[in-house]
Amino acid sequence: MRQPLKTPLLLLTLLATTLPAMAAEITVACGDGGAADFCPELSQRWAEANGHQVNIVTTPASPTEKLSLYQQLLGSQSQDVDVLMVDIVWPGLLAEHLVDLHDYLPEGAAEGFIPSLMENNTVQGKLVALPWFTDAGLLYYRHDLLEQYGADVPQTWQALTDTARRIQNAEREAGNERMHGFVFQGRAYEGLTTNALEWVASYGGGTFVDAEGQVTVNNPQAVEALALAASWVGDISPEGVRNYMEEQARGVFQAGNAVFMRNWPYVWSLGQADGTPIQNKFSVAPLPSGPEGQSVATLGGWNWAVSRYSDEPQAAADLVAYLTAEAQQKAHAIEFGRNPTRPALYEDEDVLAAQPFIGELYETVMNGVPRPASITGDAYPRVSNAIFNRVHDALSGSITPEQAVQQLDSELARLGRRGW
């Protein structure tokens, strides 16, 4: 006769080893739910393959509004959302509300990513997010016009200035009075911070705040970079560039009215669409450098994080690992043209056959520079606000580049004294 089980503890142990794990219910804050939002489909695939239930929350298209929503949820320690899609500049800002993924990810899930992105997502030794897709600033140029006027792709900002002016003036004399030499993101918002970082860092002027939290902006290279940028307005750039965001710059370039443009990779497929005035007339290159510096592209992109208030942190981390795994990133690149965060995919034959443009971005993405967001933590919105406002003042001519740098140095130092 079988002997009865002697203790309830033994019974529980046997049950735990024979019964399947209970299904988890995970809520994911995806994108805006538009045609380019791959998150709902991938999340559902994961849920079906693993016996879980997934709920999808669509979030505002505006990063500012999305961040506000997250801050409300996390600030109230809400358990309504388990997994969040976070912008590249938010890890330091939201770190206290996010789990350390090192504690939950399957073995090897945090390997094989672009190192600079992993560094960006690590706050005080804590891995708070895994990179999903990335962006980096690029120089778009009209190769037909450069060929027509016998000009090379500019390697320095001064060369861009000279070439843009020459072609702009020649085109205007030929009857195209709407032609401009260079358009970029000059409005007083986060986009201007990314542009200014590229100008200053490419001149060897640092990244405003370094990796140790020291303010570095007050130097001659930063002044020189901002002085050249300010000289563009009303010369090779329209006065209205001081109110341009990404789409305004794209509109001018895509209409055929700019020789050069700084923008993100998403512009490529839009500019090559059938019927656009610039279809097959433009190319991309790394952004120019300062006279003795190097090309610098500010990193953009999105990542996946797990809320510290989740009831299911293990299952949530498993979903993050799935979303950022090579197979899912490959599908994201092929179907949506998103730039992978895994270097191996920039050499993948299927990816390059579907999106040849991605292969051209490898060096730019690998050498991209993050904004000083992780080191400044929850002070970053104020840091960026100070940067883009003072740079905008310099572009507007209300203060000199020297004054902009000095004022910015004082403002950032004051924020730093309060503690990053």
Automatic annotation (TrEMBL):
Residues 1-23 form the signal peptide. Keywords: Signal, Transport. Gene3D superfamilies: Periplasmic binding protein-like II. It is found in: Periplasm. It comes from the Bacteria. SUPFAM superfamilies: Periplasmic binding protein-like II. One of its GO terms (cellular component) is periplasmic space. InterPro entries: Bact_solute-bd_prot1, SBP. CDD domains: PBP2_TMBP. The keyword Protein transport does not apply. Belongs to the bacterial solute-binding protein 1 family. This is Sugar ABC transporter substrate-binding protein.
